[in-house]
Design goal:
Elements (H helix, E strand, L loop, with lengths): L3 E10 L2 E10 L1 E6 L4 H14 L4 E4 L4 H10 L4 E4 L5 H9 L4 E10 L1 E4 L7 E2 L1 H8 L17 E5 L4 H9 L11 E3 L2 H9 L4 E5 L8 E2 L1 E2 L6 H5 L6 E9 L7 H6 L5 H9 L3 E2 L2
Length: 273
C-alpha cells in the first residue's frame, strides 16, 4: 500500500509558480514506450528535484506493455507512441478502467542510415519496398552494389505500429528484416553497419544520418507543420483523470508548462502548441 503524504508543495517552473495543498502519493510508476522514455525520464528528474519526497520510476517495455500496465493497474502512467487500440480500450472497460489520453508532444519517425551512406532521400513507396523485400540492394537506389541490411523495431512497439500503418500500408515486412527492442538498439545497429537502414524517433539521431522522405527532412518545423510524412503524437495515459492538486496531476500536466516544453525540445521532440 502506498504511503500518503499531506503537505504544501511548491513546484517552480520557468515563468510559472504552482502551489498546492494536497493529499498525494509519493510514488509515480511509469512504463511503456522507449520513444517517450527520454521525455519521461527528463520529466521525472526535473520533478523529483523540485519535490525530493516524490519517487518516480520509468520502465521502457514498449507501448503495448504501457497499455497493459494501465489496464492491470501496475503503473500510474502508460507511455505510448501510438494511441490505444480499440481492443485495448475494450479490455480496459471490461476491467473497469477508464484510460485518459494526454498528448504530450509530437515526433517524426526518422529514416536513418550509416553516415558513410551516399543516399540523400527516399520516397515512402521506396521505403515500403525496402522493408517488404522488393528492393534488396542500394544499387537499385543509385548507391553501391551492396545488400541492404533492414532493421525494424519489434512488433510490440508503437513506433513499429506507426511505421506499419504510415509506411507499409499494412503490407508484411520481408522475412529477412531484423527486429530490435528499442530506438537506441536500432541506432547502434545502423551506426555499426554501413549498409543498414532503420527508423527511430527524433531524439535518437546522434551519430547517424537521417534521410529525406518525399523530399522532406524530419525536423521540429516539418513535424509541427505536418509536411514530414511520418509524423505522430506521443501519449501518456492515466487510469481516470488525476485529482487536481496531486503529484500525479501536476506531473502529467508538466508538458503544458514553459519548463516542460523546454524539456521536450531539449530531448529532441516537438512541444505541443
Amino acid at each position: 500500500m502506498r504511503k500518503t503524504i499531506r503537505n504544501s508543495t511548491i513546484v517552480a517552473v520557468t515563468g510559472l509558480l504552482m502551489a498546492f495543498n494536497a493529499t498525494a502519493d509519493d510514488k509515480i510508476v511509469m512504463d511503456g514506450s522507449t520513444t517517450v522514455g527520454p521525455i519521461a525520464k527528463s520529466f521525472a528528474e526535473y520533478y523529483m528535484k523540485a519535490n525530493p519526497n516524490v519517487n518516480i520510476t520509468v520502465s521502457e517495455s514498449g507501448s503495448g506493455n504501457g497499455a497493459k500496465s494501465i489496464i492491470n493497474g501496475t503503473c500510474d502512467i502508460g507511455n505510448m507512441s501510438r494511441p490505444m487500440k480499440s481492443s485495448e480500450k475494450k479490455s480496459a472497460k471490461d476491467s473497469g478502467v477508464m484510460p485518459i489520453e494526454h498528448i504530450i508532444a509530437m515526433d517524426g519517425i526518422a529514416v536513418i542510415v550509416h553516415p558513410s551512406n551516399p543516399a540523400k532521400g527516399l520516397t515512402v513507396a521506396q521505403l515500403r519496398d525496402i522493408y517488404n523485400g522488393k528492393i534488396k540492394s542500394w544499387k537499385e537506389l543509385g548507391g553501391p552494389d551492396s545488400k541492404i541490411v533492414v532493421i525494424s523495431r519489434d512488433t510490440n512497439s508503437g513506433t513499429y505500429e506507426t511505421f506499419e500503418t504510415m509506411v507499409m500500408n499494412k503490407e508484411k515486412m520481408a522475412s529477412g528484416v531484423e527486429y530490435v527492442g528499442s530506438n537506441g538498439a536500432i541506432r547502434q545497429r545502423v551506426l555499426s553497419t554501413e549498409n543498414a537502414i532503420g527508423y527511430v524517433g527524433l531524439a535518437f539521431l546522434e551519430g547517424v544520418k537521417s534521410l529525406e522522405v518525399n523530399n522532406v527532412m524530419p525536423s521540429e518545423d516539418t513535424v509541427r507543420n505536418k509536411t514530414y510524412p511520418i509524423s505522430r503524437p506521443l501519449y501518456m495515459y492515466t487510469k481516470g483523470r488525476p485529482k487536481e492538486g496531486t503529484h500525479l496531476f501536476n506531473f502529467i500536466n508538466l508538458y503544458n508548462t514553459t519548463e516542460g516544453k523546454k524539456i521536450i525540445a531539449d530531448t529532441g521532440f516537438v512541444p505541443m502548441n
